[in-house]
Every structure is written in structure tokens, then in C-alpha cells.
Amino acid sequence: MLANLLDYDLEGLAGFCDRLGERRFRATQLFRWIHQRGASDFDAMTDLAKPLREKLRGVAHVRALVLSRQHCSTDGSIKWLFDVGAGDAVEAVFIPQDDRGTLCISSQAGCAVGCRFCSTGHQGFSRNLSTGEMVAQLWFAEHFLRRHLQREDRVISNVVMMGMGEPLQNYSALLPALRVMLDDHGYGLSRRRVTVSTSGVVPMIERLGADCPVALAVSLHAPDDALRDNLVPLNRKYPLAELLPSCVAYLSYAPRDFITFEYCMLAGVNDQAAQAHALVDLVRTANGAANWCKFNLIPFNPFPASGLAASPREQINAFARILSEAGIVTTIRKTRGDDIEAACGQLAGDVRDRTGVAPRMAQRRRIMMHQVDDGASQAQEG
User: Fold this and answer.
1) pLDDT of residue 310 exceeding 80
2) DSSP state of 350
3) Is 2 helix (H, G, I), strand (E, B) or coil?
4) Domain 66-302+310-356 falls in which CATH fold?
5) How far apart are CA 345 and CA 217, in angstroms?
6) What does CATH list as the number for 3-61?
7) 282: nearest Cα among 320, 244, 316
8) What is the pLDDT of residues 312-324, one digit of tens each?
9) How far apart are CA 339 and CA 34, in angstroms?
10) Which pTM does this prediction carry?
11) Which residues are catalytic?
12) Is the CB of residue 143 less than 8 Å from the CB of residue 150?
């Protein structure tokens, strides 16, 4: 079976070359050809000795993902659907801005966490992606965009692990993928320009800090356990009393950085003034101050299965003011790519659910709709 060279960080590729009887500098050359120049044909790697190229053809390849569909938004965002085999497909999104180009990468086919406001979680979970399948999203996007935009310099300046899946539940594959992104012989991204988003897998947060302290974004979405249990089911395993200290501890590995708390604004659910004040108390209690973190308020992107509605803009602005006046850096995320269902929480891909989550979600939605209908009937009778 041929080895996929996208599965290796530089150390892994050096070990692979060593097993072929090749010196380390050959691994560096090969790594640069693959990631910096986007080469997949060993014959194009002209500074590799011909015997090595012939040897590589017999034992390895650079296996890209199969592109199924591409959608382009009116705001310039691009969403790609990649076939990852066995009936599973995942999505990645490129978001252009004036000062950066951000790629949102998926880490799993589906997601087992099941957050109420996330379309991915409503379709269930199939499997983890390999390192190569994560890296292949960046490899494809970077070199496609260079050709598409007719540029020779790097297009993607930021990577966010915020696509389909919970990255920290796929840690063994995530870590080498991050190292490829950061390596100067690969994509050369700054640690502050690579973000891992997590719903709160507490044991892996500190491990990530020790192994590879990139930027950390935590999906918070509620100021108390009762509400967060409902919105982010993982909270039942790792409640706020465990999550917040793990976030504070992460800063010891990246002392010049801050933690970003993501907060999806849901009308009448988590967007009240009292809840904003409770968030201020929560972060102050955790670290004795409010300036160790920032909040990114995310306008909810509705989808039919959620049963939730987006907060009005004036409500989001009022919520943001309370946080800002308490000394917390607060931003409101600009919605991008919603016309192609590429905005936050909308990525769904197409996966074979191995968990039974999707049927349970459908049953829960039917119950909810039945309750709504009953309530409406009783109101009419009254």
C-alpha cells in the first residue's frame, strides 16, 4: 500500500526517508516540493536524484481529496465539498478579507458533540479524518487559489480548525497536521494565525498547550451549566468549573496570547443582559480579571432542524456593550458565505451517521414541533 506523504509532518517524513535509506535533507526537499510548491508528481521534483524519484513512485504518493462540488459566494467566499470515501464528504471554506485569507478546515466527517445550533452535529458522526485528509484541504485550497488568482505568493494567511467535527477528539491526527501548517518548510504560518476551536474537551486543552500552543477558541455559548448542558451536551462531561480553569492554564503555554470565547447569539435563549453580566462574573472569577480573554459574538445562521432563531442585531449590540464596558475585548463576527451555507454552524457535508444521532435528532424535532402545534391549538381554544 502506497504511503500518502500528506500524512507526515517534517519529522515523520524524515523518518520515512530514513527507512528508504535517504538522508534528512531529502525529506526537507520533498516537504518543500509538496507544500510550498504544490507538487504531486515526483518527476516534477527536479532537484531530487532520479533513483530517489523512482524509489518514491513505488512506495508513496501525494493523495489529494476528490473534489465533489465548489460553491462561490457573492462575498468572495468559496466552499468546497470533498469526497473522503465510503459515503462520507466534508467541507472546507475559504474566506477572503482585506488583510487576510482564512481557510476553515474540517477535522471529522460529522460530529459527535451535537451542539443544538450547529448543522454538522445534527447529521451525526461517521469517522475521524486522517492527518493527510486535514492537510489535503489546505494543500488543495492554497495551490488552487494561487492558480485561480494568478498569484505566486501565499494566499492563505490564517487557518481555523472550525469546520466539521471536534478537533480535540481527533488529537493524534490533528497534532501533525498543525505542525505541517506551522513548519517554515511547509506553510510557515504563525502560531497566532492557526486556531483550534473546541467545544471544551478539557483534558486535551492542556495537552495542546504543552504540545503545540496555537490560538485557542472555546465554544462557550452560555454563562451557566444548566443552559450550556442544553446547548453544548459535552458540558455534562466537562462543566464550566473544569473548562474555565483549563482555559486559564492554557495561557501559561502561550502567555502573550488570550483565549477566544465563541458565543452564538440565540434569540431569547442566551442573549439577555443578565446573561452578559453573568459572563463577566464568570471570567473574572476564573482569573481575577476580565482582560485574559476576548468574546466573539456570532450571529446565528438558522437552519430548519435547529428550532432556534437568531438574535436581533440591536440585541447583539447591547450584549456586546455590556462585555466591552467590563473591559473584555468583544467583537461581532461578520457573517460570510451564508448564501452558500458556508457560514458558521452551517457546514454539513454528507456523512454516514454511525452513532444514531441523526434519527434521534429527527425524533426530537418531531416532538418539539408536536409540542409547538399543541401549544398553538390550546392558545386558539383559549
Assistant:
1) yes
2) B
3) coil
4) TIM Barrel (3.20.20)
5) 15
6) 1.10.150.530
7) 244
8) 999 999 999 999 9
9) 33
10) 0.91
11) 91, 344
12) no
